[in-house]
C-alpha cells in the first residue's frame, strides 16, 4: 500500500491540506512520509474482524444544553478583533475571493 | 528560597504563619529563572509584572488556612490559554496571539490564588518528543545542557527540574507529560481522559489530549491534580466522576498486597539496558515492600506507535484547519486571493513537523485510504484498550519504563521522524485507551548519569492508586533527592 504514497500522491494530499511545498522540500518529505506510511502498513497484520472502531475514550454520552445566545461586551469584541491580521470598521478584512483583484 | 528543598504544604504553612510572603516566593521564582534561563530556555514568555502584582495583592489581603494554593508560583505550558497573556503553542502561527479568555484549568488556578510566573516552551502545537520543533528554540535538559528535555511539555519539566517552580501544567497526547518528566527526573501525571477539562487548551488530538501536572514531589502533584479536575460545561468529554482529594490519604498509603503487572513488552530489549536496570531494581524494591509482581503481556503494544500516529495526526489535521490566516494568528504577505491566504499562511506559519503530521492525517483520512488507515487504526485502538482491561481484571497497576532511553542528545533524532516517533512506544498506549499514567523518578543511568523514569499505569479514574504507589516509592527511595546543578549551584 505504501507504493501509493509517491510524489504525485504527496502533492495531492498537500492540496487537500492547503499546504504547498517546494521541490527541495518534497525531496526531503516524500521519502520520510513513505517510511512512516510503511510503518502504518504494519497494522495490516492485525486481525480486526468484528472489532468496532474506537474513536474516543470518553464515558460521557449525549451531553446536551440549551442553545442560548449570550451577548459579549464591547471590550471582548475589541480584544477578538485585535487578534485579527487585518480589520476595518470593526470587521475582519480578507482579500477578495476571486483572483487578481486587490480589494 | 530553594524550591528543591520545600513543597506546597510547607510553603503554605509558612505563608499562613507569615514566615514568608507571596511576593518573596514569586521573587525567588523569577530570580531562579534569571539564573537558569540563559542555559535552559524553559520559558517562551515570562509573566513577571502580573505575577508580582498578584502576589502583592494576596499579601495585602492575607493568606488563610483554607487557601492551599494561594501565593504558590507555578508555570503554564504555552498551549494553554491565558487571558491577556500571549499564548503561542510555540508556533510562528500564534506568535502574537493574545487569548480573550482563560482555559478552565487556568481559571481554577486563578480562583485558588495560584500565581502563573510564565508560559513554558513546547514542541510546536505539542507535536514532538524533544521541544526541538519549537519556533522559539530548543529547551535544554537541566541535567545536561547538550541533551533534550523530552517533549512536548519539555519546558514545563525543565522549569521544575531547574528549580524555577514547584509545578508546571503540561498536556499529554501521546506521552508529552510523562516523557519529559522521565528525562528530567521529576513527577508527571497524565490523568484519565475526561478527568480534566480541555476547554481553552489548543487542540491537537482531541480524543487523546489531557492536561496534567509536572512537579518535584508526588504529593504536590496530587494536590494540584485535585485542584484542576472535574466536569466542565465547556468540555462535553469532561467526566462527571467525583474528584477525590488525591493527597489526603497519601501518608497512610501502602503497597502491601498491591498487584503489579509488568508487561514483558515494557522491559524488553527494545529498551536500553541502563533504563531496564533501574526499572528492575525499582520493581524489586516494591516487591520488598510487600507488592506482588507478575509478568503479563500487552500484546498489541508494538502497534501503538502506528495507531497513534494515524489517529492523532488525523485529529490534528482537522483541528489545525482553523489556522487559515483569517480571524487570528499569522497571515502571509503578498497574497492575491483567498486560496492564497490559506495556502501561503499555512505553509509559512507551520513548522516542518506540524506540516508532516497534517500531511499524515490528511492522507489517512482521504478518499481511498480512510478504511485502510484511519478506520483500521481505530479498530486496533480498541484492541489496545482491551489489552489493558484484561490485565486490570486481576491487577491494580501496570509498571514499566516511561521511555526506551534516557534523554537523547539535541539533534540526534530530529531528522529521522520514524525514529523520533518510536521514542513514544511506551507512552502512547495509555492515551489510546484513555487510562491514567504517570512517570516518577526511579534512579539514574549507570551509563550517562541521566534520570530514569518509571511509568505507572492505572485503571480509568483510579489516579489514586498511582499516587499511593508513587508516594510510597518516593518516600522509601532516594532518586528524588538529587537535583540538576545550574546557575552556580554547588
Could you describe the 3D structure shown?
The complex is a heterodimer of chains A (103) and B (490). Chain A has 103 residues and is mainly alpha-helical. Chain A has a domain at 2-45: Histone, subunit A (Orthogonal Bundle). In chain A, 36% of the residues lie in helices and 4% in strands. Chain A contains three helices and two strands. Chain A has helices at 7-16, 23-40, 74-82, and strands spanning 87-88, 91-92. In chain A, a hairpin with a 2-residue loop joins strand 1 (87-88) and strand 2. In chain A, 12% of the residues are buried. The model of chain A has no long low-confidence stretch (mean pLDDT 89). By secondary structure, chain B is of the alpha/beta class. Chain B is built from 15 helices and eleven strands. Chain B has an eleven-stranded mixed beta sheet with strand order 1-3-2-4-6-5-10-11-9-7-8, sandwiched between helices. In chain B, helix 7 packs antiparallel against helix 15 (463-475) and helix 9 crosses helix 12. The longest helix of chain B is centred in the C-terminal third of the chain and has 22 residues, at 371-392. The two termini of chain B are 15 Å apart. The chains are: A mainly alpha (103), B alpha/beta (490). At the A-B interface, helix 1, helix 2 and helix 3 of A face helix 9, helix 10, helix 11, helix 12 and helix 13 of B.
Task: Please supply descriptive tags for the structure shown above.
heterodimer; A: about 100 residues; mainly alpha; two-stranded antiparallel ribbon; 2 strands; B: about 500 residues; alpha/beta; Amidase signature (AS) enzymes; protein biosynthesis (chain B); glutaminyl-tRNA synthase (glutamine-hydrolyzing) activity (chain B); transferase (chain B); ligase (chain B); EC 6.3.5.7 (chain B)
